[in-house]
Amino acid sequence: MRTTRARAAGRRTALPILLLALAMPLVAAALVVAGCGSGGGDAGSAPSLEGTSWRLTGWSASSLDPADFTITAQFADGRISGKSAVNTYGGPYEAGEDGSFSVGDLASTMMAGPEPDMRAETIYLQLLAEAKQYAVEGEALTLSDANGNESLIYAAGE
Fold this sequence. Notes:
This protein is α+β, with helices and mostly antiparallel strands. It contains 2 helices and 9 strands, in the order H-E-E-E-E-E-E-H-E-E-E.
């Protein structure tokens, strides 16, 4: 009789432990997913750019209005690509959790276009190459230079 009670007590203790062991990975996964939103994560970490698309809406270096041109940026698989007013471009990028940002050597098609478009493209690619920091706030991505000056401002979407 004593053995039967001990086994029953052991089963009652083992069941909650088994349920807890099964639930822990689900709780951990939920916490990870909750931190992956566009503004989620720790206050000290910048959200990932991977899988996002942006359209340039503002910049610091020219009287030209970037909204007059099609300038975009997509981030996928460690690469940035998009349209730079006339041509398409692409290359590697790095975006750190601390908000650091850099692009590697960018390749571009070599088509010619109207003079204002070509000037906008040159300005964009130069500012992009000089970008050293990024921040995402709501539906906006801002790239800044090494001195912290905002240089490129994008809106979400393409």
